Amino acid sequence: FDENWHHTELAQKLDLFAQGKIPRLMILMPPRHSKTEFASRRLPAYIFGKNPNARIIACSYNADLAYLVSRDVKRIINDPAYPFPDTKIAGKDTDAFFEINESGYYRAAGIRGGVGGMGASFAIIDDPIKDGAEALSKTVRDAVWEWYASTLYPRLEFPGSVLLVMTPWHDDDLRGRLLKAAKEDPEADQWEVFTLKAIAT
After folding, report:
1. pTM of the prediction?
2. Block means of pLDDT (10 residues each) for the chain, length 201 residues?
3. Deepest in the core among 76, 80, 93, 184, taking most CB within 10 A?
């Protein structure tokens, strides 16, 4: 792995998120710039190492990808090089759900999938829209927004944190709607945004 300057800055932001110092964080980056590796694979394992009681709900645009990432998180935790020996996968263990120690857990789901009965101290959303073509569909954008507002967000346990990691495809995507709400309503969630643009303008 060749570390670049943006990896260092990304890791610093994610560390503050894991500590609860940035409770609403957006990571906006082009494809293939390590955002999933850092935010969806490494970050949950790090959070569990620091706090085995954490409850994480992690979502992506479809369940297959969410389950693939879930398996990667488990591999990191089970690796002999994992630096938190007191954190163990215990109890139920599937691609969709696994338990950590006595009370922590990880739930993987696709966007618009159900997470009934689950609470989250950390919610991680990685690429809620698959690509630019999907982003052009208002029907898709509306469905993602409805899922976030009515399914995922109510699952947060105070003072739960939300991480949105995505490539911006459209001004009216989930990122755009959340930032619009934050601008129009001081009482709405206020987001810290870490942006790396593919093309500097």
Report:
1. 0.94
2. 90 97 95 90 98 96 94 97 96 93 94 83 94 90 94 92 94 96 96 89 74
3. 76
